[in-house]
């Protein structure tokens, strides 16, 4: 897993004059608190695919789940590179965070049980999962779980001052 403390810099081209970089702990807290994320994957023919999902920030990585036959799971078989995005659909306030990395499947049942408990704690009983055969198990069937440790992340602070911060890991 990459270093927990990234190299951080503000991109003056896309920031208000004199804007400071958003500290990584602030971006990390935004990832932990967010309820909705958007995942971008690449279809086998090269076209993009974007869809909303729940995710969990834990131990330096974002975790998400998907059914084995869902488009994003099929895309990941060919290309595991993803972008996960969260934030607020407001122009002049808030912090949007974008995480780029490689999706790695989690199959250890003990780790999956920890994640299932954390999912239910964060999102409530709607997201109750049992664990077995290296997957989340639920009424609709199985779900694969993936971890994405950030390789690069971006923080977009909105409102005065606007800033674009890049976080480089590893």
UniProtKB/TrEMBL annotation:
A GO cellular-component term linked to this record: cytosol
Annotated segments matching region Disordered: 1-21
Coiled coil residues, start to end: none
InterPro entries (UniProt xref): F420H2_bilvrd_red/Heme_oxyg, Pyridox_Oxase_N, Split_barrel_FMN-bd
Record-level Gene Ontology MF annotations: coenzyme F420 binding; oxidoreductase activity, acting on the CH-CH group of donors
Biased composition (Basic and acidic residues): 1-14
Sorted UniProt keywords: Oxidoreductase
Domain (Pyridoxamine 5'-phosphate oxidase N-terminal): residue spans on this chain: 25-127
Stated name of the protein: Pyridoxamine 5'-phosphate oxidase N-terminal domain-containing protein
Source organism of this protein record: Streptomyces aurantiacus JA 4570
